[in-house]
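Re: the 94-residue chain
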Amino acid sequence: MDEQARRSYWRRNLRLMAVLLSIWALVSFGAGIIFVEPLNNLSLGGFPLGFWFAQQGSIITFVILIAVYVWRMDKLDKEYGVDIDDYEEEVHHS
């Protein structure tokens, strides 16, 4: 991979991480702390929604965001020709 492709790959990776971490911050900090009072007027499973987000929602969101990151990075790796399948094939044939 040439230098320009590496920079493009890294830039897209950083953009993806920034978007996903921003979503996580909004859910964990926003829903669990800043907007907790209005959210507590609603309930989920018998618990105030603000409490639920503070205790479970941010963790569940983080796990989902990890899955999205893996999925998107697999696509990005294949697009730039650096996916693990190609690497393993090269290692076994050399």
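Residues 3-34 form the longest helix (32 residues).
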